[in-house]
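Progress against Task 2.4 (sequence-to-structure conversion) is shown through the following example record, which the project officer requested during the mid-term review.
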Amino acid sequence: MIPNVEIDNLTDEVGSEVKRAMGLFPPIHNMHEGLGVIEEEWEEFRKEVFLFNLAKGRDTRLAARKELVQLAAMCIRTIVDCEINYIKENENVVPTAS
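Structure tokens generated for the chain above:
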């Protein structure tokens, strides 16, 4: 079992990456755009996994971990940005009686 301290540190690290990305890049406008960003991070992680080969001196575990943090961050960023967009799109909508 992984101690909670490590999980807390990891979630803090992912949260910091979300905030960093929000400061560097414009918002994700919709789920399709989010999917593209997530796929890009997934492919970067996948590349590090396939490069991993200790017998050939290629220890990519730290690079793969970095990509996983970025992947998790972009998943969260997509949720946040799409929810913000939904709220903005519907802030002036008046519910009607059915």
